[in-house]
Design a protein that fits this description.
eight-stranded mixed sheet; binds pyridoxal-5'-phosphate; 378 residues
């Protein structure tokens, strides 16, 4: 038997999340952001759920190549553009839309001689201060891209630093300031604009663009701290699950795991789960982090090990070896685990380890394999 851990990728949830986002953005087109191997879900695995998207957005040329090889015929946007002049040959061959955020990229385009004009996004820096043209460089880049015969300027884009801002907060002020900067820098550009990530799309109805760029919401994780994904009508696209591989009865005062971090306040039953930080479960998860055993949420008890975690089963006495455990998914949201661990769902889903077997589900969740019979435990 292999270790019982596995990740399920719910293609139907991706499809449904995309439809939920599309319903929020009537008349607008959506880039489905699939960078970082579709946020750890596997680019090829999620593609079937993204049929209704208008394009894919990513930043790795090899991932663009994979999307084309998997049969994706619609547009593909390179969110960070080219990393070298010769990348433009790949852009042309694969029919990609490239971003220009930096003067060097503009020079590469000016020197290129593609057979057809290349579709280009111009990225403006409106206050995020990572990528994009700011100040006088912005209208200059815009003017140059508009006249270069090898360029078809497809849209002007920006990215918000605080798109999940609640009305009336300082962050909401930042959204307004960035939008005003965009209007100023984009001058008399009346063509398409691309502004919104998931958070902006879901929480800033005043922001309307032509091509929104949702990522995290497609995978069913909330882009807004403290607001559960379910409130946006989003469904988890990943389940990380395993089983109990041992149970220990410990006396009051006994300690569990490395560093003896968790100490039993009463006689306790400890469940040992085949999932550790080498599977991508966050080692920093504290005692109390939610874990679902047989559908009941129980607290993590003790430090996360490389291959195992330990949970307190004292209040779920019927739990036994072989029982199913959900680390995150529909029962325990990835955001709840992330919040306990002081991070975000993005990081956890991107960090599921290569050793975890992955199964694609499109429709009803796959039934757990029958519980291994006695003597057959992993
Ligand atoms: C990653 C990314 C997105 C998607 O952001 P989410 O928060 O995952 O929706 C959108 N735009 C750009 C430029 C990005 O890099």
């Amino acid at each position: 038997m292999p270790r019982p851990i596995e990740a399920l990728i719910h293609v139907d949830a991706v499809r449904q999340n995309l439809a939920t986002l599309a319903a929020r953005a009537p008349g607008r087109r959506l880039w489905a952001v699939v960078k970082a191997n579709a946020y750890g879900h596997g680019l090829e695995r999620v593609l079937r759920g993204l049929d209704a998207a208008d394009g894919l957005a990513l930043l790795d040329l090899a991932e663009a190549e994979r999307a084309r090889a998997a049969g994706w015929r619609k547009p593909i946007l390179l969110l960070e553009g080219c990393f070298a002049a010769r990348d433009l040959e790949v852009v042309e061959r694969l029919g990609l839309t490239t971003t220009v955020h930096e003067p060097g990229q503009l020079q590469w385009l000016a020197a290129a001689r593609p057979a057809q004009p290349l579709p280009v996004y111009l990225k403006l820096n409106t206050g995020m201060n990572r990528l994009g043209f700011a100040g006088a460089a912005a209208p200059a880049a815009l003017a140059q891209l508009r006249v270069l015969p090898q360029v078809e300027l497809a849209a002007v884009a920006m990215h918000f630093a605080n798109a999940d801002a609640a009305p009336g907060t300082a962050q909401a002020g930042s959204v307004a300031v960035q939008l005003a900067a965009f209007e100023r820098l984009a001058g008399n550009w009346r063509g398409a604009r691309s502004l919104c990530n998931s958070a902006a799309l879901l929480t800033q109805p005043q922001l309307v663009d032509d091509w929104a760029r949702p990522g995290i919401a497609l995978y069913g994780s909330s882009p807004v701290a403290g607001v559960p994904a379910i409130r946006f009508g989003l469904r988890a696209a990943m389940t990380l699950r395993s089983r109990l591989i041992a149970v220990q009865d410990v006396a009051a005062g006994a300690a569990v795991g490395y560093g003896s971090r968790w100490v039993a306040a009463r006689a306790a039953r400890i469940g040992i789960v085949a999932c550790g930080y080498a599977d991508g479960y966050p080692r920093v998860a504290p005692d109390g982090t939610p874990v679902a055993v047989n559908g009941s949420v129980v607290p993590l008890a003790g430090r996360v090990s490389m291959d195992m975690i330990t949970v307190d089963l004292t209040d779920t006495p019927q739990a036994q070896v072989g029982d199913p455990v959900e680390l995150w998914g529909a029962q325990v949201s990835i955001d709840a685990v992330a919040e306990a661990a002081g991070t975000v769902g993005y990081e956890l889903m991107c960090a599921v380890a290569a050793r975890v077997p992955v199964r694609v589900v499109d429709g009803a969740p796959a039934a757990l394999a029958p519980r291994p019979s006695a003597g057959d435990h992993p």
